[in-house]
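Dear Dr. K.,

Following up on our conversation at the group meeting, I've run the structure prediction for Toxin-antitoxin system YwqK family antitoxin from Pedobacter chitinilyticus. I'm pasting the input sequence below exactly as I used it, so you can double-check it against your construct before we proceed with anything downstream. Let me know if the numbering doesn't match what you have in your notebook.
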Amino acid sequence: MRRTYYLILFVLSLALQTKAQSSSADLAPYKHHIANDDHQFSFYTLPSDKSVGTIKPNRSYYWWGGKQIQVTQGGYSGKLLDGIFTVYYLNKQLKQQGLFKKGLKYGEWKEWNEQGKLTLRTTYVEGIANGSFYKYNDLGQLQEQGTYKDGKLEGKLSKYVTADSVSVSKYKNGVLVPVQKDTDSKPWWKFWKKKETNVRK
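The predicted structure tokens came back this morning:
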């Protein structure tokens, strides 16, 4: 009984290993490594037999053509980027990493400086910034945080001037909302005015 159990486990593990190797082999023709003077890129392109779907005119598509990564709004003329996208500094530190689906940015994208400190986190949905974002200084300290909605600032934007000082502003559809003054509150000098008292004569 135990021998049969181990035999089944062995066959299953062998099948999984073969499938993993097959998947890697299937993706191999679509994986690219390129280098320029100060960065190295690693990315995948979409297989030609996969359906792209409807091209949206207000989206920026990333594609591979002419031995370069290209960006075009509302169209493309090469192989769309699809899968994990990674950029390295020459010292092998990560510079940028995120996910492409059919040429569009998806999920959380991150950026780092050459010392390996995280400098930016942004979330994308169908190629447009949507959700929370965080910016950090070169020491890795949070400098700014806010929210994007359809690529535009929405809600509170917090800027950390110092460790104890935060500047908060509000945005609506990408436009800064002016601070409203409270007209119902009394001027400061009225709080110091003495109350009149009735004196009997």
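Two things stood out to me. The chain has two domains: 28-48+59-116, 118-182. The chain is about 15% helix and 45% strand.

Best regards,
J.T.
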